[in-house]
User: What shape does this take?
Amino acid sequence: MNESAVLLNGLKSEWLEVIEKRLTKFEGVRTELEADLLTFFDQLIVAMDTNSPMWIDTTIASWAKSASQSQPLSGSDSMVLMVGEIMAGSLGLVSDSLSAEQAVALTRVLMPFFVHAIDTAANQELQARLAQTHRELQRVQNALARVDKSKSDFISVAAHELKTPLTLIEGYNSMMHEALSATTNRRLQSALCIKGITAGTKRLHEIVDDMIDVSMIDNNLLILNYQPVWINRICLAVQRDLDAIIQQRQLSLTIKNFPGSNDMIFADGERIYQAVRNIIVNAVKYTPDGGAITVDGRALPGFIEVLVTDTGIGIDPEDHQRIFEKFGNLGDASLHSSGITKFKGGGPGLGLPITKGIIEAHGGAIWVESEGCDEVKCPGSIFHIMIPSRKSPPEAIAAHRHNGLTKEERVLYD
Ligand code: ADP
Assistant: This one.
């Protein structure tokens, strides 16, 4: 070993202590710092002995790699700064521990190695940052491609959804023209046409209402009208509403009298009705004829949990989150149909995002449990809906309602 290498090697333990203290702020190399520093030191000694600075490159490369993997490189994790700290610590130690003459000589030898180390660190850092930027760019590009795809899927599905009721209205409209010019059965035919036109406009309304709801939820504009509600009454109202379809599809819908279902709570009755209806309509849609749908639940501290279980086709675990995302489940436009309760009749894919928005606006949560999607075995799905069991309307809403009162009413209220 040459003289300078011997001199520096003699300071090994002090060097380790000084440098470790200076480097504790560098997140990326904090783990196994001691082992890393000892490797760097040994390589520096070999580099000095062989007069070949390349020896220290491998340690710097491995630091750069671990820093960029543990977290995105930030200013405080700069490899250049870190090597600069090692240089400052090493030169400080040399000047403190050796005679002036030895210190000057050793500093002169050490400087080119540290200049090389800083240069390597800057290079490695640049590479790591470039790779990081590239990954980030790729991520943004993928996200943009997804947005673009869902936009065009949406246009295609929305056009299809809107076209079906329009065609219906047009058809009945022309029938009406014919009926009015014909002499027989004029009344009967007109009544039939009006029924068809009403059904078509109703469906158009539902689609447009769904779109408005989604945009209100997105923009945090959903205002809840808190009033006393009973979960059981809401479920029974949904059951009455869907009775004809349930009969037609030979399904059974059982509403259980579970603990909490008869408790009076404060919520927006219409919106909770809409949410529960969406879930039960989906259970109807995705359960083959003859299947069973059950609404059960339990009272939990601060919440009522409603469970809607069906014996339908089920949902793949990888879709459990996606189905609650807006336009996350747009499929083939040709599968979409305005017969919204027929088996697997697709819709615009807004039902679950709206339901989630309504439940979350109440301070609740919704999720699904299902083994997977299998149209033969029909493993079924369980939708969990957590509704806060408020015993009074929230403050902000009370104030909102109060503002809507007349002067006379306000006097009474105050
Ligand atoms: P859609 O209008 O397509 O029914 P939703 O938002 O109501 O939109 O539902 C999203 C998707 O979630 C559906 O397309 C379907 O794939 C799946 N889904 C929802 N409920 C059920 C269920 N009970 N059983 C099986 N799949 C379901």
